[in-house]
Amino acid sequence: MPKRRVLVVDDSRTIAWVARDTLQAAGYDVRCVHGGEDALKELEAELPDVVILDTFMPQMSGLEVLGKIKASARTCRLPVIMLTASGRHEDVLASYRLGADYYITKPFTQNELLHGLDLVLKQEKRSSAA
Description:
- A five-stranded parallel sheet has the order 2-1-3-4-5, sandwiched between helices.
- By secondary structure, it is α/β, with parallel strands linked by helices.
- Strand 1, helix 1 (about 15-25) and strand 2 form a beta-alpha-beta unit.
- About 50% of the residues lie in helices and about 20% in strands.
- It has a single domain (about 5-130), classed as 3-Layer(aba) Sandwich (Rossmann fold), CATH 3.40.50.
């Protein structure tokens, strides 16, 4: 079975690398980019199985990126996990309203990240079988 591909989008290289190392150790194929525009370019080139997306980034916020992902016919079914420092109720709701599949607040544990991936990938598998 091929490795599942994950795109990590976070302007903090440290957070992106921690997520990458955690996911690679669990057997995922991981690509990291550090901004919204780079994420959209990466999605044009190749679709991953899931996107892990920071909310607060310069130039283009994660919510803007999420909106563009969910508005495109090519990427609208792509699972997106928000990984953000904000646990504010309004931010969580905004993410889910735009189509986020899961929401993890920073700081996060390896188990939280892996559990979130497991949940959204199982949901994706169920919905594609229907």
